[in-house]
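> @MW can you paste both from yesterday?
MW: sure, first one:
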Amino acid sequence: MSTAGQQENRPDTRSRLLDAAEALFAERGSESVSLREIGRAAGARNVIAAQYWFTDRDGLIRALIERHAPEIESARHALLDEYEAGGLAGSEHDRLHALAGALIRPPAAKLDQGVSGAGYLRTVADLLTRPEPVTEPFGYSDEDGSIPRWRALLEPLLDPDAVVLHRRFHVIRFVDVELAQRARAPGRRDHRLFISQLVDAAAGLLGARTSPETRRLRAERGQVRGADH
């Protein structure tokens, strides 16, 4: 075992590093905090403690996401179970609203979890707003994941062009950015109105019809790509 491992192989070191990362990410975002800063904030005796436990920044971020994922996955699956148990009844608007709620309410619970929840929400938004969005840590392609299930239930309700144009991902990113912004607002303790309004907005975005202009531009782009081949 390395020297770092000998010095930092205490049962709570990994948790303390994640706690420190969440607090720093909540304050400054995940892109501007170094592994060494996280180690110092965690009280680690070796400056490379975070590297020992997580290998690199991506490993730490993956561990942070995985720390919160079971709670969110369980809550979203429960809401989707409830949706399916209702026999998919109700108007299209009601079903879109229910599915928007299933997307939003599980991570929105993090708003009531202090710096831990805020650190998670800001990290998610940072990953999804990179020039090349990072989705791998969220299990979007996992067969048993809640997001693939949510996408499948939602697809029949969407304009076909909206499906092709990745409307669902755009709404996911919009929601996660809004949650991260809310997490940055100091002193706000009652999030019920914010969450309800966010569900309304997401349902409206999901249900929006694709305009003739967008359909025309999409068709033109398809023709250009076909000509390239």
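MW: second:
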Amino acid sequence: MTDLVVAIDGGNSKTDVLLVDATGTVLGEARGPGASPQNVGVAACVETLERLVLAAHEDAGLAAERPFGVHTSAYLAGLDLPREEEVLHAALTARGWSPSLTVGNDTFALLRAGTSSGTGVAVVCGAGINCVGVGPDGRVHRFPALGRISGDWGGGAHLGEEALWWAVRAEDGRGPSTALLPAVKAHFGVDSVVEVVHRLHFGELRGPVLNELCPVLFDVAATGDEVAQEVVDRLVEEVSVLAGVSLRELGLTGGSPEVILGGGVLTGVAEPVIAEIERRCRKVAPHAVFRVVDVAPVVGAALLGLDAIGADVAAKERLRLVSGGVVSESRRDSDG
């Protein structure tokens, strides 16, 4: 299968692999645990990826003989710096999966999944937050995306922590009254929010459980709670600033640049939140086209792979039709 593309999306919580041929047909697929090298290390990451590539071949009924295809397109969370990409590129090259290989951050896969040509700006807000942009001339703009030490604010884990923080302070008197307090208690089924704090402290609840508080935060904000709304407003501003900076840096303030929003947090919020992000971004790019994309990022990795092998437009459209995923789009003028 010399025209086969091995497409990989390695997230924090799960990893997807697709085998796609040059016509855009998905021949095999596999899903496994998170394989971000930042979390599990490069060696464990590569071992997980190879198991899943072999499983995808089994699903396709293909013999897993190296090289597996003509190109490997691997996009993973945690590849935030060129040095990290270089290390994983070398480790995957040594496996001999394909003659050519592209490695990058998974936000690039989101950008490709949501855009017509792979150019534009994408902001992802899932467990963490990140933004990348690609200009028509191929120039790339991105941020280190290493958390608070690199100036980041937001992401599901952070928002959940904020919700818990305000609930604790409301309960013990250090902060204002907020409906987050009863909402957090109800979510965890406790009489006091301090019980949640104790369980986290003693390892009876794991840190990722705070991600569950994201929808709680947005639901409480939608009722008019000022404390919760301030947190949501901060997220809206952060997403808008990320997109705005990339649009300016790449000279995409004119025309109709595509701005893609994705990740579990942004695909789960109510339309008014997205509308406010759009309103703020349009101060920078008045005629930008916004899409909220809820599609497996591995589809974007596969599209990038088809780009790399020179597949035709029909092949890419075939893959998109099978995958679907665009849940909202708008092209409103700056005056709304």
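> thanks! The two ends are 50 Å apart (CA to CA).
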